[in-house]
Specification:
disordered C terminus; Rossmann fold; single chain; lyase; 14 strands; 293 residues; NAD(P)-bd_dom_sf; ODC_Mu_crystall; eight-stranded parallel sheet; ornithine cyclodeaminase, domain 1; alpha/beta; Ornithine cyclodeaminase
């Protein structure tokens, strides 16, 4: 924490994300490789007068070693001359942009706030989702489920919620956010209440957060990337529509009795957070051009 702390404003970031998805901005096909249980990807996008590039890895064994699950670097260049404008660690921006995209997806799916927010997981993505969603929406109650009791209780206290069992959370929550590195489904469709919204932001394969019952009940899912099924079993075996097409009105879903959004990451989201951070920093006259600053 610290490189962009206090810089990001969730409401304007969500608006920028929507503007980028609506516009004729471009992103290159993501290049990625796996090594053992780890994953490394390179993501490049352009729009609004900028180019962005993010090289990021997901390392499932890191949390047990006291290291971040996600590590990488985020770069922003001026489109006209290639001047490097931003060079910062990718962990915080990835957290912010993923949670902001989830907020946008929930809004487009028709969620207007209220009820119970349940978060499964107590790591970086869980914390950023709580930070963003609690600013974008109003909730009546916050529930946290985590395999590690102390971590889950600490996160719940931090946001005025309480730690509960995972299935109890599923039964009671109007919005369920799964932010884990579990290889076994943590969201079981048989326990979801009718009309529930599910946001799954776990890492790509071999992470698996949704069981087949969730997908059957949803009938269709919203995904952040057209290659979601290639990278996650959570997005396979069911009709999928990209958030970009959904925002533009170019595609629709035949929803069942639950709503699902699956995120695996897309370069336009990285472009959005890079532009957002740069423009807010430059407005204060504090542009950072090196991750060592």
């Amino acid at each position: 924490m610290g490189h962009v702390e206090g810089v990001v404003e969730p409401h304007s970031l969500v608006k920028l994300l929507e503007d980028l998805l609506r516009g004729e901005n471009d992103e290159a096909p993501r290049s990625s490789i796996s090594l053992g249980g780890s994953w490394l990807g390179a993501m490049v996008a352009g729009g609004m007068g900028y180019f962005s590039a993010k090289i990021v890895g997901v390392y499932p064994e890191n949390p047990g070693r006291g290291l971040p699950l996600v590590r990488g670097v985020l770069l922003l260049f001026r489109g006209s001359d290639g001047e490097k404008l931003l060079d910062i660690p990718a962990e915080e921006p990835t957290g912010w942009r993923t949670a902001a995209a989830s907020a946008l997806a929930l809004s487009k799916l028709g969620f207007r706030g209220g009820g119970v927010l349940g978060v499964i997981g107590a790591g970086v993505q869980a914390r950023y989702h709580l930070r963003v969603l609690l600013q974008i929406f109003r909730f009546d109650e916050i529930l946290v489920a985590s395999r590690r009791m102390e971590t889950g209780e600490r996160l719940a206290r931090e946001f005025g919620g309480r730690r509960v069992g995972r299935r109890d959370l599923l039964r009671r929550s109007d919005v369920v956010v799964a932010a884990t590195n579990s290889r076994e489904p943590v969201v079981e469709g048989d326990f979801l209440r009718s009309g529930a919204y599910v946001v799954s932001v776990g890492a790509p394969r071999p992470v698996r957060e949704l069981d087949d019952s969730v997908k059957r009940r949803a009938s269709c899912i919203l995904v952040d990337s057209a290659i979601a099924c290639e990278e996650s079993d959570d997005a396979c075996g069911v009709e999928a529509v990209t958030l970009r097409d959904y925002v533009r009105g170019a595609a629709s879903c035949r929803w069942g009795d639950v709503y699902v959004y699956k995120s695996v990451g897309t370069p336009l989201f990285d472009l959005a957070i890079a532009i957002h951070i740069y423009e807010r920093l430059s407005g204060r006259g504090k542009v950072s051009t090196s991750s060592s600053e």
